[in-house]
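Inverse folding, one chain.
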């Protein structure tokens, strides 16, 4: 997936870019209610030694975008559903006297929160990996 942006800050081998939100973001609505007109900032690996003010092309593999989305959204949702289903079965097996549905929901939410915490703890590892980091591949016009 290729995008373009302007470098607004640079340090060592990383650069911060200001970019326009991709058109696919309009249908997502996960941030800023899908308002395409707002700019976003991202950090990208600066392999071409671009400078502040340069207009650059940024690339990230589509499969890596999908993997990152799965880690952030699909796995927690899966854990929520598994917590609800297995919580319901386990509570019935142990003859729980309270509200089984409410307790199953609490177990599912608890597993989802634990999953988010594990993802947050591993975030530095994901950031160090170039697999999930956008890469500046080309300087389109220099300052």
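Residues assigned per position:
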């Amino acid at each position: 997936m290729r995008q373009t942006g302007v470098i607004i800050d640079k340090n060592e081998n990383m650069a911060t870019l200001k970019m326009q939100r991709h058109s696919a973001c309009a249908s997502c609505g996960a941030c800023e209610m899908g308002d395409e007109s707002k700019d976003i900032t991202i950090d990208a690996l600066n392999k071409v030694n671009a400078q502040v003010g340069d207009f650059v092309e940024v690339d990230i593999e589509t499969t890596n975008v999908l993997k990152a989305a799965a880690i952030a959204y699909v796995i927690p949702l899966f854990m929520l559903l598994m917590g609800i289903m297995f919580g319901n079965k386990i509570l019935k097996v142990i003859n729980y006297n309270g509200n089984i549905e409410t307790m199953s929901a609490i177990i599912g939410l608890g597993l989802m929160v634990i999953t988010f915490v594990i993802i947050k703890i591993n975030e530095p590892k994901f950031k160090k990996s170039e697999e999930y980091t956008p890469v500046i591949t080309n300087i389109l016009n220099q300052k």
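Residues 63-128 form one domain. Helices lie at 24-28, 62-93, 100-121, 123-128.
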